[in-house]
Design brief:
The longest helix of chain A is centred in the N-terminal third of the chain and has 41 residues. The radius of gyration of chain A is 32 Å and the shape is extended. In chain A, a hairpin with a 5-residue loop joins strand 1 and strand 2. Chain A has 21 helices and 2 strands. Chain A is mainly α. Chain A is 69% helix and 1% strand. The N terminus and C terminus of chain A are likely disordered. Chain B folds into 2 domains: 52 residues, no CATH class; 172 residues, Orthogonal Bundle (MetI-like fold), CATH 1.10.3720. In chain B, helix 4 packs across helix 11. Chain B is globular. Classes of the chains: A mainly alpha, B mainly alpha. At the A-B interface, helix 3, helix 12, helix 13, helix 14 and helix 16 of A face helix 1, helix 4, helix 5, helix 6 and helix 7 of B.
Chain lengths: 435, 283
């Protein structure tokens, strides 16, 4: 047994040796085969241990996210509602109004829909879908579908009488363009672009661009917050790393207590401090520094978001920095100084480069977390402190444009995953530590 | 750290300036949290210190916000919900996470990198994306607005912490101990409960605490997936902050701070114990 165990170690790595092939186990099977079987069993056992969690996460986490991403290209509303119309539109040149045959097909499609059960009607979702591309399209569809059963040939005139939009080639271009099971139009909208008359993609007017500036602001706020956490985190991490263990652990509690405190508690703390009737403003008024009429507005704007998020994310910078700084031997700095370096040179050339892994880990961590932050900007950000997550939530809960929410979400997710991949490549996730 | 005798005046000035800066930063970290504690005893419905409070007049203080908190049916239900959901989610994520960590730490495990990536993905994906995905998925399988839905969602978010802490404990694990147990005739189950479990227990418990605090503090997924029945403490605070902000929020916050202090203490003690058990120096 002991012998078999010892050779099992060897057989795992390196080429099989000639003498192992001659060996047999007590029941007569060649050792090599017995080992392979044992190896396979151990592999199955290992996979079996991981499998429950893997299946669980694939079902309730990965699959839902994949499904959400699918919503950003899914486009079956028009295909489902207007099969005949789309068939007839194939030969349409896209310039003038389509001919009577198309309107007749549209009539047939809408008549068929009236026969469906109210819950399965297809024109409602189609109207909503068309409205994303062309405002007023929804009312055109709903107004027409209400009395489409009274229409008589020629249908072209009947439709144009029911709503002027049916006489607009723009609507027909949208129907033809989006009459496909997959679409890129949510991404086009998420990048502040739109389709021009000839079908090319152009930028929106300056005053109608929303999402690109919002992505820009999200990036800007995340960079500012990351820089702030670095500026505040570096000194205290360094200070803790030069203190004796006992005192450092005591100070560590100051970092860990906010880390463990509820996010909403910390956010409300900043509301208490920063609002117009809050502690800081009242203190300044009482001290006579500002007068009652000119209280500072420090919250419900970008300042609020930056201050509160810096406070919330600071521990994520300090913890990796500290764990790296602890491992830097103090003798390096002493050696640099004894070789004639001034303290600032020694710091810049010797100490600082060694802290880079910690800065990288903390920086990417803070940046990744802040780029997708939702709660704090929603509570203290006001209008100017809103970030991309708030817009995603708005489209899911209020405007119900799930396709656009999914497109924005997919872009955010891909960005975060690329950052994380870079982080893993250059820093390694081992430097993430909690508590 | 005492100052060396050879320090020049410039060094001394820097020495003190640096400490002042550091304490200012520590103050920035702690003060906002600590300031809420006295304010939660305010007798007046303000977020500032009243004149009575500053002169330590007992009339300036009261327990009215705590009474308000404990007396309100919706707050009481939110406490129940938070613990019910938190504990159920913790059990699910601890069991699944510990098993997975045991599997991952075996050398025979194939595709380790990929699997680890999937297992810790709930920690990396922005919460708003997770919440949106779960919202669509749970609505389609009729789990939105149910306790089961929220528990499953929170369990998924908590598992990475269990996997990471238990894996870290297993790094220093001496596998000859389990081999010795097997050699002495113990079955794999018996080996697990008698040998492995006691040794990795500190890691399992701190992972479980992380999973619990993740659920206990979670709000984004609750906003999307939970119905009015499942309102947790953070969810009530969210409405409190958005709708009518009253010092009741501060009373709740104070209680939550005390809970986090308790959890932090337990985790810290466990970490030290774990390191002692595995023969590492504490620190």
């Amino acid at each position: 047994m002991a012998q078999a165990d010892a050779s099992m170690m060897d057989a795992g790595q390196g080429p099989a040796r000639a003498e192992t092939e001659k060996l047999v186990t007590s029941d007569g099977t060649p050792l090599k085969r017995a080992l392979e079987r044992a190896e396979r069993q151990r592999k199955i056992a290992a996979v079996g241990l991981v499998a429950p969690l893997l299946i669980f996460l694939l079902t309730v986490f990965i699959w839902p996210i994949a499904q959400m991403m699918w919503l950003s290209v899914k486009n079956d509303q028009i295909v489902d509602a207007l099969p005949r119309t789309l068939q007839e539109l194939q030969t349409w040149d896209g310039q003038d109004l389509p001919g009577e045959n198309v309107y007749a097909a549209l009539h047939a499609d809408m008549m068929e829909d009236l026969e469906r059960d109210r819950r399965d009607r297809k024109t409602g979702p189609m109207g909503i879908r068309l409205n994303y591309e062309l405002s007023a399209a929804r009312s055109a569809v709903s107004r027409t579908s209400r009395n489409v059963d009274e229409f008589e040939a020629p249908y072209k005139d009947a439709f144009m009488d029911a709503h002027r939009l049916w006489g607009d080639p723009a609507l027909w271009r949208v129907i033809k363009r989006e009459g496909r099971p997959l679409t890129a139009s949510y991404y086009v909208a998420a990048l502040d672009r739109e389709y021009a008359e000839d079908g090319s993609i152009v930028q929106r007017d300056e005053n109608r661009r929303i999402y690109v500036p919002l992505f820009g602001r999200t990036l800007y706020l995340s960079v500012v917050i990351t820089a702030m956490t670095f500026l505040l985190g570096f000194p205290i991490a360094y200070y803790m790393s030069i203190l004796p263990m006992r005192q450092a652990n005591l100070l560590m509690i100051c970092v860990l207590l906010p880390f463990w405190t509820s996010l909403l508690v910390r956010t409300s703390a900043w509301i208490v401090l920063l609002q117009q009737q809050g502690v800081i403003n009242s203190g300044l008024v009482a001290a006579g520094i500002i007068d009652d009429g000119s209280r500072l507005s420090m919250i419900y704007n970008q300042t609020g978001t930056i201050v509160a998020m810096t406070h919330i994310l600071l521990p994520f910078m300090v913890l990796p920095l500290y764990s790296v700084m602890r491992t830097i031997p103090p003798s390096y700095m002493r050696a640099a100084k004894s070789l004639g370096a001034t303290p600032s040179t020694a710091f810049r050339r010797v100490y600082f480069p060694q802290t880079l892994p910690g800065i990288g880990a903390g920086g990417v961590l803070v940046f990744i977390i802040s780029i997708g932050y939702y709660i704090t900007p929603a509570l203290v950000g006001g209008q100017s402190g809103r970030m991309i997550s708030n817009e995603i939530a708005r489209h899911i809960q209020q405007s119900l444009n799930w396709g656009l929410a999914a497109a924005l979400g997919t872009m955010l997710l891909v960005g975060v995953l690329i950052l994380y991949w870079l982080f893993n490549r250059f820093v390694g996730s081992d430097s993430l530590k909690f508590g | 750290m005492s100052m060396p005798a050879y320090y020049t005046t410039k060094d001394k000035v820097w020495h003190y300036t640096f400490r002042v800066i550091c304490f200012a930063i520590f103050f920035f970290l702690l003060a906002p949290i600590l300031i809420m504690i006295p304010l939660s005893f305010n007798a007046a419905p303000f977020f500032t210190f009243t004149r009575e409070m500053l002169t330590l007049n007992p009339e300036g203080f009261s327990m009215r916000w705590y009474e308000d908190f404990l007396g309100s049916a919706s707050w009481r239900r939110s406490i129940q919900n938070s613990f019910l959901i938190g504990i159920s989610a913790t059990i699910v994520s601890t069991v699944l996470g510990t098993l997975a960590a045991l599997g991952l730490s075996r050398s025979e495990m194939p595709a380790k990198g990929l699997i680890m990536g999937i297992l810790i993905s709930p920690m990396i994906v922005p919460l708003i994306i997770s919440a949106a995905g779960m919202f669509f998925f749970f609505s389609s399988v009729n789990l939105a607005g149910t306790y089961l839905g929220v528990v499953l969602a929170h369990a998924a978010l908590g598992t990475p912490f269990v996997v990471i802490t238990v894996t870290a404990t297993l790094v220093g694990f001496d596998h000859s101990l389990t081999r010795a147990a097997a050699n002495l005739g113990a079955s794999p189950t018996r080996t697990f409960f008698k040998i492995t479990m006691p040794l990795i227990l500190p890691g399992v418990i701190s992972g479980a605490l992380f999973a619990f605090i993740t659920s206990f503090d979670e709000i984004v997924v609750v906003l999307f997936v939970a119905g009015p029945e499942q309102r947790t403490i953070p969810r009530e605070m969210w409405s409190g902050i958005r709708e009518d902000i009253s010092p009741t929020i501060l009373a709740v916050a104070t209680i939550l701070v005390l809970i986090s202090v308790a959890l932090l203490t337990v985790v810290e003690l466990l970490r030290r114990r774990g390191e002692r058990l595995r023969g590492m120096s504490p620190g």
